[in-house]
Amino acid sequence: MNEKKLCMADIQNKIYEAGLLRPEEKVVLITPNCVLLELYTGKTYSYRMVDLITLKAKRLFSSQKPLSSSGYQKAIEKMLAQISEVEEPIPADKHNRARELLTYTFTDILPKHGMTFRENQLSLALSMLDAMEETKVALCEAEVGTGKIHAYILAATIYRLFHGSSQPTIISTSTIALQKALTEEYIPQISNILMEHRIIEKPLSFVVRKGKSHYACDDRVRNYRSSILNNGREEDKELIETLDCLYTGACSIDLDSLPLTDYVKGRICVERCHLNCDLSDICRYRNFILKSQTNAFYFQIANHNLVLADVLSQKGGRNRLFPTCGLMIFDEAHKLLDVARQMYE
């Protein structure tokens, strides 16, 4: 049963596209030819079955509580007694099902959201998915306008859905501009589309990883803020407001998002982070790093330098900068060699 749940994406989307999946209704059980749907009405749990051969829905029963293990077994018996006699079970081949869903996403779903279908974009995404399935390295080149970002985000997402991997996908880039595009445009857009079409149930989560000098140190912020306040200069009013924001936790510790000079950032950024600090128990940077080392995020986005620094850390027997990843994608890979030369010289 767990394996079926991990491969639920295409089945749930098929029911949604057929107009059979109601808002707030969810697939809770899959058998070879039918699924069980659950809808909480506010008072009771209503259960329906959908025959995957005929794509017809039928109400089964209601319950005051969610089904127990024995309740699911009774539901299976009821469904099997009513499904189509035609033998056409759900294909067991995850790879083919993943390819079919990826293809359908590009040919049918994305055009509904204003995106033109491009054969070369689909071909690129399928090549990436094949490499992921076969645990191989794929070297993909695409001309401007192909839509490579949509291709690799969707290929990675669908691969993860079908294989049940909880490990994050690392996306390595060479520019801040691409990182901003990924986090502010592409991932939220794809996430919303896949949720609308019931392929995923939760938004695609992500975190941007940077070197420690890009983050504020709570202890150094506290000390620098104190020295600026003691100066009592009128021209430091805006600076004090920003430092207050950092000090109280009202804004992010990501210094790239704050209106500060390089000098100020150098005075408050993380230099050394150790347990002897009196703020270590509530240190936001430490908490951020600890969470980033888990599988809490679908995507971890970083630049080539940090990813290669992680390789050096592993080689030197030091702590890893990233958690173990399921997939690694190098965008702007043509710049990777220059970065490697700079770091390894």
Note down, in words, how this protein is organized.
There is one protein chain. The protein contains 13 helices and 8 strands. Helix 4 (94-109) packs antiparallel against helix 6 (148-163) and helix 12 (304-315) crosses helix 13 (336-344). The strands form 2 sheets. A 4-stranded antiparallel β-sheet has the order 1-2-3-4, covered by helices on one side. It has helices at 2-6, 9-17, 69-80, 94-109, 119-133, 148-163, 176-196, 218-231, 237-248, 262-268, 284-292, 304-315, 336-344, and strands spanning 26-30, 34-40, 45-51, 56-63, 169-173, 206-208, 299-303, 327-330. The chain has 345 residues and is an alpha/beta fold.
List the keywords.
alpha/beta; 4-stranded parallel β-sheet; Helic_SF1/SF2_ATP-bd_DinG/Rad3; Rad3-related DNA helicase-like protein; nucleotide-binding; YaeB-like fold; 3 domains; ATP binding; hydrolase activity; 4-stranded antiparallel β-sheet; 345 residues; disordered N terminus
Write the layout of secondary structure elements.
Layout: H1 2-6, H2 9-17, E1 26-30, E2 34-40, E3 45-51, E4 56-63, H3 69-80, H4 94-109, H5 119-133, H6 148-163, E5 169-173, H7 176-196, E6 206-208, H8 218-231, H9 237-248, H10 262-268, H11 284-292, E7 299-303, H12 304-315, E8 327-330, H13 336-344
Parallel strand pairs: 5-7, 5-8, 6-7
Antiparallel strand pairs: 1-2, 2-3, 3-4
